[in-house]
Amino acid sequence: MFAALANPLRFMAFSRWAAPILAVAAVALIGVGLVFGLEAPPDYQQGQTVQIMFVHVPAAWTAMLAYACLGAASFVSLVFRHALADQAAKAAAPLGAAFTGLALVTGSLWGRPMWGAWWVWGDARLVSVLVLFLLFLGYLALRASIEDEAKSARAGEILALIGLINLPIIHFSVEWWNTLHQGESILRKGGPALAPVYLLPLLLMGAGYSLAFGALWLARTRAEVWKRRATSLALQVALA
Amino acid sequence: MTHLILSGGKYAAFIWPAYAASVLAFAWMILDTLLRARHWRRRARDLEDDRRRED
Questions:
Q1: Is the pTM of this model over 0.90?
Q2: Which residues contact A78 (CB under 8 A, 6 or more apart)?
Q3: ipTM of this model?
């Protein structure tokens, strides 16, 4: 499937119908997730702040998904010199930055009433997610600062691939270090620690956020394909 | 849902900004993506039309 989509024409034909379908599915999942989430009773320890979980955790999951997509696209672009993969990487970065920023802001708003602090520099989970945010911003700044498209792509790919090491650090930070941030509560031995009344809306929101990222990623990659086409045509006109 | 919307509880000052930030983030991502796609699609099509006319 990925080999077939490597052809820009086939990708444009596929993404033209896939992006709206993903968007509709995302809206439906997020809508249902919000209804269930806002109906969920206050947690016995966290009270009503548990409602923040339904927007914070999916944003954090999607931020990591976005970086994994950025890394995978960068790898394909670096190894196979594929222009569409580079355009996909460029398209993933601003979305990833937005989801990571959202995870940081909502996490801070959750941390203040629960921990008594907006931010804790000694917390490995918080700092590793901040590093993820800086990696996205660094990637965007690097791509914007180098005029030569090929050099800009290579520099971005190397940064994106190096940054992949941060993903397992984020995931395991709550196990490797003592943190204020709560430990793993979904993918853990013995099953999820969350009660179904919280788990269901969280999973619905997580799926919805992921599909929303998918729809936006396809749409932004389409924009990058159009941009490349326009730049190429403008160059042809200038040289004629 | 209504109990939360109406009362908000003592943590409303933290819950609603979190939801507002989410709405703003999604609004920016959707608008920026759609505007960017429309801009470059139009630009490419205009240039294609120019080239066709020249040919």
A1: yes
A2: A154, A157, A158, A161
A3: 0.91
